[in-house]
UniProtKB/TrEMBL annotation:
It comes from the Eukaryota. It is found in: Cytoplasm. Pfam families: adh_short. This is Sepiapterin reductase. It comes from Tetraodon nigroviridis.
Length: 263
């Protein structure tokens, strides 16, 4: 494992951009990261739902970090649209952190042999792969490497990036592609810190897991999800805390895939 420094108390004065920040794991990340940003930092929340973003902004404004001067900006953007990634910028500081969390489950009620409409597949891949690459590239160009500023890119990944889940062809394909995308980025940009973090999708307490349990076509996988739910789910805050530890320790190998259960 490479090490870029010892464990830090916080992430310094930072610009932090979180996509998919209005609900679920993204909103938990916003709460967790807000406590690690030293004022006057800026937290940029990106999602498609204006109402849910405003609720997240109000929650953070009332928090200890908000009262201490954290600037929270909401950007309503559909990252599948060509201009979506260009709407998220603010001034950077000592640390620029981008968390690529936005993702969709896709139709898991069907098997791979049923996806015969190219437009349907292209639309899914545009949101889950293309927009992620374009946003990351835009951020790196907007904030080029310079002395005294650390740049970190986090890809919220999944076990599905490494293992096939029957009837999850879209989700598994997109997650695998994103992991490789960020491995390439780490190889190309050695001064950049790159991490793919799998938060424990299966038992995570999110709407996505609830939808997966209800609609997954594969009966064996559906039973697995029901068993996981019966045993108790991983809280988003728990998984978020482990990601915060990884970022503060800063000892992961750039480009690595780290799972919640590996820590």
């Amino acid at each position: 494992m490479s090490c870029s420094g010892g464990k830090r108390a916080d992430l310094g004065r930072a610009l932090c951009v979180i996509t998919g920040a209005s609900r679920g794991f993204g909103r938990a990340l916003a709460r967790g990261l807000s406590g690690l940003l030293r004022p006057p930092s800026a937290l940029v929340l990106v999602a498609r739902s204006a109402a849910e973003l405003r609720a997240a902004q109000a929650e953070l404004a009332a928090s200890e970090a908000g009262r201490a001067g954290l600037v929270v900006r909401c950007v309503v953007a559909d990252l599948a649209e060509p201009d979506g990634p260009r709407q998220v910028f603010a001034d950077g500081m000592e640390h620029v952190l981008l968390v690529n969390n936005a993702a969709s489950l896709g139709d898991v009620s069907r098997y791979a042999r049923t996806f015969t409409t190219r437009a349907e597949v292209d639309s899914y891949m545009s949101l889950n792969i293309s927009s992620c690459l374009c946003l990351t590239a835009c951020v790196l160009q907007a904030f080029p490497q310079r002395p005294g500023v650390q740049r970190t890119v986090v890809n919220v990944s999944s076990l599905c990036a490494q293992q096939p889940f029957s009837s999850w062809v879209l989700y598994c394909t997109a997650k695998a592609a994103r992991d490789m995308m960020f491995r390439v980025l780490a190889a190309e940009e050695p001064e950049l810190r790159v991490l793919s973090y799998a938060p424990g999708l299966g038992p995570l307490d999110t709407d996505m897991f609830s939808a997966a349990r209800a609609t997954t076509a594969d009966p064996g996988l559906r039973r697995t999800f029901s068993d996981m739910s019966a045993q108790g789910r991983v809280l988003s805050e728990q998984s978020c805390s482990k990601l915060m530890e990884l970022l503060l320790e800063d000892t992961y190998q750039s480009g690595a895939h780290v799972d919640f259960y590996d820590i």
